[in-house]
Amino acid sequence: MDLRLKISALLLLLTLCLTGCNGAREIDDFAYVVSVGIDPGPDKQSTFTYQIATGQGHGKEAGSSEASTFLVTIIAPSLSEARNLLNSVVARSPNLSHTKAIILGEDLAKQGIGDVLGPLLRFREFRGSMFITVSRGSAKEFMQKNKPIMEKLPSRWLENSLASRQDTGYFLSSNLHQFYTRLKATSGAPYATFMGLNPLDLEPKPVEKKEAGDKSLAYYPEGLGREGGNPAEVIGTAIFMADKMVGVLNNEETRAVSILSGDFTRGFITVEDPLAPKHGINVQLRLGEKPKVKLTRIDGTLVFDIDILLEGETTSIPSGINYEAREYGQLLEQHLSNILTRQMKKMLAHTQELGTDVVGFGLYTRKLFSNFDEAEQINWYEVYPTVKFNLNVSVKIRRTGLMYKSSPIKREDSQ
Description:
alpha/beta; nine-stranded mixed β-sheet; five-stranded mixed β-sheet; 12 helices; 28% helix; 28% strand
């Protein structure tokens, strides 16, 4: 037989082996789960809320999330049993390979989620890229009241919301792989994105009062003074000690974590004008370089010396003071440095009080040991509260927006 005929016959047989329909299952044979909410249930069981795609979202107008998905809530002792029961409810076979997020109720997170993580890590349909989030209150209520306005599909809302963290640094995103890695490691505490439902009453509920120099306030979910739109909001970070949630960082503390970990991309900060405190100044910040961390041991105490360089662009100077000039610019830079240093110190004190190293400073302690086994013996949860930090935060105004020289507005009472 001619060689070309042999090769052609071999390729023909190969195409039969590579066919993509060997499972004999069509797409519409499956019920695709978009997200899973988990809350405590009665009799030591759990309440599982499944958000399932109907497959009709693209045929509807934006905001019609009810047509694109529906919710099913089941009480079961485990995720595996809940999946079995779900199969008895929906006509199609449940498929979790496209699940975007696991939403943990706050009460469940405080009780501990070790039992929940088992099937998430071993079952092949749960991907390591799934987001891990904590909702203030119950996960079921959050999923019921989360009504995206701009997105056709709630799955797109989850993806877009959690991916937009780079625009502010006001919340951190955590996926299953990252959460589990930190859970098993001894060098950093696990964390998850914090979410909640706003009452939409236009009543701000800040965490605390403004401090000297601040114009903006710190918030948890449900605290923003707003009205209209989707009541769901993502802001802050839920922090864990081992598998139990022990506290929450507000948006300013979360931004401090993002900066210290070198993960901060950009974000605006509004501060009092140092020469005209009744006015505010807006500056867009970004990291000039990764934080430089030096670890030393002094009299048995670990000391971290951290140098941080942030670059800024002024986007609003209502007072009209010429901060573009170097003598005024240096004053503004020092003002920003002082405020950011205070916010970072507050975050570090908070996490040390809770014993949870969210930034991951424990990684730097590896050089103190001769081998990995020695490093694993240290109880970082006990050591971290005793650590001392020396912060050197430097802010450099590199750009002044579309104006190169400010001048005050001519007012009626001006001289």
